[in-house]
Amino acid sequence: MLLSLSIKNYALIESLEIEFSNQFSIITGETGAGKSILLGALGLVLGNRADLSVLKDKEQKCVIEAVFSLSNYNLEPFFVEKELDYEAQTIIRREILPSGKSRAFINDSPVNLNELQALSVFLIDIHSQHETRELLNEEYQFQIVDAVAKNEKRIISYRKGLSLLNKTNKELTKLIAEKESLSKEQEYNSFLLEELLAANLKVEEQAELEEELEKLSNVEFIKENIDKALSLANEEQLGTIITLNEIKQSFQKIATFSKEYNDFHERVTSVSIELQDIIDECYSNSEKIINDPERLELVNTKLQTIYSLQKKHQVTTIEELLKIQNDLDSKVLRADDLDTEIENKKGELEEIKEKVNLVAELITKARNEAAPILAKKIETILALLGMPDAKVFFEIKETESFTKFGKDVINLLFSANKGLQLGAIKKMASGGEMSRIMLAVKAVLANYSKLPTIIFDEIDTGVSGEIANKMGEIMKEMSKNMQVFAITHLPQIAAKGNQHYKVFKYNVKDDTLSELKLLNNEERIVEIAEMLSGKDISDSALNHAKALLN
């Protein structure tokens, strides 16, 4: 419920603070006095977008603050979900800065417009003239039938199931597409895999084979140079080993004279030992070097196979080939496993579809039971509003496909007079009739909806006299279950309110300001009299106003 509204620096409003009751409140005022400004300010609090044009003083920020009582509407889960502080009296503040930036706060916690709009859905229904066209909307027709059918929990369950059904269906489609793609490549992938497996590749094998090929291709040249090295090292008179031994002996003779000469001796001894090891290994290696054409051919063939595979797969290493081999192996195995996965997914899909279908059937059953009750209630109210022969019918048909509304399509049919066939409401109802039908719908929903506040913005357009009086009575009856505001030009409706607020403009020097004032009883009589007779208020208008208020 809206407890109070504070507006600063918005359009024609310099500063305004007003409190509201939980009953039936009337707002009146001349055309252009600022009623739309008031709704615009409230709309900003509820998350509508704004620009700098709303600033009265372009150098100052605009601040709009509304206080709502939430204690009876079970909104704590919303605040927990959004990680906001819950207060029984929640304050929503909107600021428009001169820079053009906008800020929003719920209980002093910064929020974005999406969060503000999400909360506003639970707070206020602002119904203006053009919104009677909601009646033509399939979604709105489902909403009003489902409210009477008490389908809220079923709809939530159904939509969760539908979301899972769509998700599972996408997964199945993806698996089938993957299967088709792999099936086309299966034979080629198997061939490539067999080719790689046949090569029996090993990590680092390529470098080893290339080194071995170099040795096998130069056997004679290698043996010749090793033998030459051995000969130079072991030649009887000038061999390297003999010369090195003589050097070692020379240093040995003077090693005791200083540390420096002893180091020379030790280093030459070390070189002598290392050279002897090299010579011994060369002897062993020389004996193993043989000309092996068969091994040469085998190594060359294996390398050519590796080079060919690398070229085919556009890589340069065996490691990359082995990765491709693993990928191909996975693809081949994946193709074999997909059939099982697809069958399992189909079974899962059918199981979900069965559960969703069951909930959809419960929704349809509840709708079919509620629709005639809703239609009868609307017809009863329409009779009070001067349409005694009006007929309303919610045509609900089952379909095979799942939509967000269930497995139904809906069509609101209407007839205003006897002898007329029921037809689609958009073809059968005039503008004035649409306003009365919408009021009837809202009146019925007031007994089912948990919405705390509704604002009717000139829903009485096109009616007068006794019909206007009945409209006022219906809105007053609605206020027993919720907070109701009516912005009206009709005295019959204005007289029904528990409180009466007047919007008016006035001039201060060269400035025009708009104000909202709660009228006392005497002021209210004058206002209603003026609505009856205009600016020149007659005694009969005052008496009529008093009669209406009584």
Automatic annotation (TrEMBL):
<keyword id="KW-0234">DNA repair</keyword>
<feature type="coiled-coil region">
    <location>
        <begin position="335"/>
        <end position="369"/>
    </location>
</feature>
<comment type="function">
    <text>May be involved in recombinational repair of damaged DNA.</text>
</comment>
<keyword id="KW-0067">ATP-binding</keyword>
<keyword id="KW-0175">Coiled coil</keyword>
<keyword id="KW-0227">DNA damage</keyword>
<comment type="similarity">
    <text>Belongs to the RecN family.</text>
</comment>
<dbReference type="InterPro" id="IPR003395">
    <property type="entry name" value="RecF/RecN/SMC_N"/>
</dbReference>
<protein>
    <recommendedName>
        <fullName>DNA repair protein RecN</fullName>
    </recommendedName>
</protein>
<dbReference type="InterPro" id="IPR027417">
    <property type="entry name" value="P-loop_NTPase"/>
</dbReference>
<dbReference type="Pfam" id="PF02463">
    <property type="entry name" value="SMC_N"/>
</dbReference>
<keyword id="KW-0547">Nucleotide-binding</keyword>
<feature type="coiled-coil region">
    <location>
        <begin position="165"/>
        <end position="219"/>
    </location>
</feature>
<dbReference type="InterPro" id="IPR004604">
    <property type="entry name" value="DNA_recomb/repair_RecN"/>
</dbReference>
<feature type="domain" description="RecF/RecN/SMC N-terminal">
    <location>
        <begin position="6"/>
        <end position="506"/>
    </location>
</feature>
